[in-house]
């Protein structure tokens, strides 16, 4: 009887142990399952957070400039680098070009998104006048104004050329092809009674090419429009044998009264080696314009980053000291909605 009772007790203990062990395993499994589920959830949430933090693919924006020796390219390249460092949306590419007119034409067709031009080129394109009289109004809008560029005509000190009137019968570079620079040089010459196609031998060359041909003795004078000072002219005047010719003040007054985008200006004496007096000339605003169809957020981001981080590229050229939100808001073409949005946001325009 005792043996039977002990056996029953042993069976009961073993059964209880099995049940307890089974319950423990079940509990452990449930706990492990919960931990695994929690870990999976955490991992998924972490991945989702990481995906959210990843910047979207940047939008490429090609901006047409000018020759690499000119101010357009120097400023655009420095501005592009700064914008790219600060923007999660844009990747701006400064592209060398033949200048204003080519930039306008390529932007109009959408081959590039933005461009640099003097104010007269933007005005002509936006209003379908001058060189755009036949083709009509171009598909461009204003983005921002930057700085003033000055008309400059260089000659050799021993050339005997004292005024624009002395250029008659000479070989003269009127500026780079496909730019509005030639409009300024021709305007000045015509006021001196010189037909730019008949009374001189005209050349159409880039800044550095024109100055190189001048110093090599192949031409008598070379005209260009650029920020003061400009690298090509600094290089050409390093020997002190090249100087600038100024415009008669009465002619300046007459031209500026007829063409509002030209403004009287003096290049200070000593700006370039060999030029020992103030040079009377014109200055004109350099502007950035854009294809009208570019999205509002893209143009807004460009203007915002360009203006709010100007200190980072100000040292690229002295003309960048002129860039500020107030003057930036005045453009020769109607502002693109994205640019207008930014200027309204900071209280510059209504």
Please identify which CATH superfamily we are dealing with: Periplasmic binding protein-like II
- Figure out the total of helices: 11
Query: Can you tell me the residue ranges where pLDDT is under 50 for at least 5 consecutive residues?
Result: 1-27
Shape: globular
CATH T-level topology? D-Maltodextrin-Binding Protein, domain 2
In whole angstroms, how far apart are the ends?
A: 107 Å
Strand content: 15-25%
| Annotated CATH architecture | 3-Layer(aba) Sandwich
Radius of gyration: 34 Å
SSE sequence, one letter per element: HEHEHEHEEHEHEHEHEEHHH
Largest sheet: 10 strands, mixed
Descriptive overview:
The protein has 350 residues and is α/β, with parallel strands linked by helices. It has one domain: 3-Layer(aba) Sandwich (D-Maltodextrin-Binding Protein, domain 2). The protein contains 11 helices and 10 strands. Strands 1, 2, 3, 4, 5, 6, 7, 8, 9 and 10 form a 10-stranded mixed β-sheet that branches. Helix 2 links the parallel strand 1 and strand 2 (90-95). Helix 9 crosses helix 11. It is globular, with a radius of gyration of 34 Å. Mean pLDDT is 87; it is low at 1-27.
Give me some keywords for this one:
single chain, 350 residues, alpha/beta, D-Maltodextrin-Binding Protein, domain 2, 11 helices, 10 strands, 43% helix, 19% strand, disordered N terminus
């Amino acid at each position: 009887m005792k043996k039977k009772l002990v056996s029953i007790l042993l069976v009961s203990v073993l059964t209880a142990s099995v049940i307890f062990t089974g319950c423990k395993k079940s509990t452990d499994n449930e706990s492990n399952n919960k931990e695994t589920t929690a870990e999976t959830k955490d991992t998924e949430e972490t991945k989702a957070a990481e995906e959210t933090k990843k910047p979207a693919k940047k939008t490429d924006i090609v901006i047409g400039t000018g020759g690499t020796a000119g101010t357009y390219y120097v400023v655009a390249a420095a501005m592009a680098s700064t914008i790219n460092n600060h923007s999660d949306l844009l990747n701006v590419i400064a592209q060398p070009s033949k200048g204003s007119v080519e930039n306008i034409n390529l932007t109009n067709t959408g081959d590039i998104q933005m461009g640099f031009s003097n104010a007269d080129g933007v005005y002509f394109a936006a209003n379908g006048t001058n060189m755009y009289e036949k083709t009509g109004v171009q598909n461009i809008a204003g983005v921002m104004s930057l700085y003033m560029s000055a008309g400059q005509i260089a000659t050799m000190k021993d050339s005997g050329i004292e005024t624009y009137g002395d250029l008659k019968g000479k070989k003269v570079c009127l500026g780079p092809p496909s730019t509005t620079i030639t409009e300024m040089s021709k305007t000045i010459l015509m006021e001196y009674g010189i037909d730019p196609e008949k009374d001189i031998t005209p050349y159409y060359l880039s800044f550095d090419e024109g100055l190189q041909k001048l110093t090599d003795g192949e031409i008598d004078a070379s005209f260009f429009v650029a920020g003061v000072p400009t690298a090509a002219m600094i290089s050409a005047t390093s020997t002190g044998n090249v100087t600038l010719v100024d415009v008669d003040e009465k002619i300046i007054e007459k031209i500026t009264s007829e063409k509002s985008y030209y403004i009287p200006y003096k290049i200070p004496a000593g700006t370039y080696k060999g030029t020992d007096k103030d040079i009377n000339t014109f200055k004109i605003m350099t502007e950035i314009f854009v294809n009208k169809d570019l999205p509002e957020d893209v143009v807004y981001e460009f203007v915002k980053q360009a203006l709010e981080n100007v200190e980072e590229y100000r040292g690229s050229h002295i003309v960048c000291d002129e860039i500020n939100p107030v003057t930036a808001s005045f453009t020769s073409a109607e502002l693109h909605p994205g640019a207008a949005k930014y200027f309204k946001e900071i209280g510059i325009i209504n």
